[in-house]
Amino acid sequence: MSGRALAKLFDPLVAWMAPRYQAVVGAELRKYGLRYEDLYDPQLDLDVDEALKRLPQDVVDARNQRLKRACDINMKHSELPKDLQQLQTPFEFYMKDTLDLVKLESDERLALGAGKPYERHLP
């Protein structure tokens, strides 16, 4: 059985499960006042780190504030009040365009055989 046929076999299941999974993830993010892109780790992905450097400072500050608030809420074994949870927008993306641009530049550099200007080398 080819990969394409296997994918077609599971398409209905994925189409049924995807919105449910997104709803569960959104509910969990709302509890802590986070957005989906807040979960991207700049220490694990250099492209995310570079994208964060290119974003306006107020957007980065808002992200850092959301992360601090989520850590505080988590440490208190609590969650945001229900009225504040309703105001949260977990799937409003603020980094997607910048991150896509950084990844395109990274792919272009790879195709040209050049390294990333922001690449780290571990000893």
UniProtKB/TrEMBL annotation:
Annotated localization: Mitochondrion inner membrane
First-listed, main subcellular location of the protein, grouped into a coarse class: mitochondrion
UniProt xrefs under Gene3D superfamilies: Cytochrome b-c1 complex subunit 7
Cellular component GO terms, alphabetical: mitochondrial inner membrane; respiratory chain complex III
GO terms under biological process: mitochondrial electron transport, ubiquinol to cytochrome c
Pfam families: UCR_14kD (PF02271)
Topological type in the membrane: Peripheral membrane protein
Keyword terms: Electron transport, Membrane, Mitochondrion, Mitochondrion inner membrane, Respiratory chain, Transport
The keyword Electron transport appears for this protein: yes
Top-level lineage group: Eukaryota
Family, per entry: Belongs to the UQCRB/QCR7 family.
Role noted for this protein: Component of the ubiquinol-cytochrome c oxidoreductase, a multisubunit transmembrane complex that is part of the mitochondrial electron transport chain which drives oxidative phosphorylation.
Protein known as: Cytochrome b-c1 complex subunit 7
Organism of origin: Chlorella ohadii
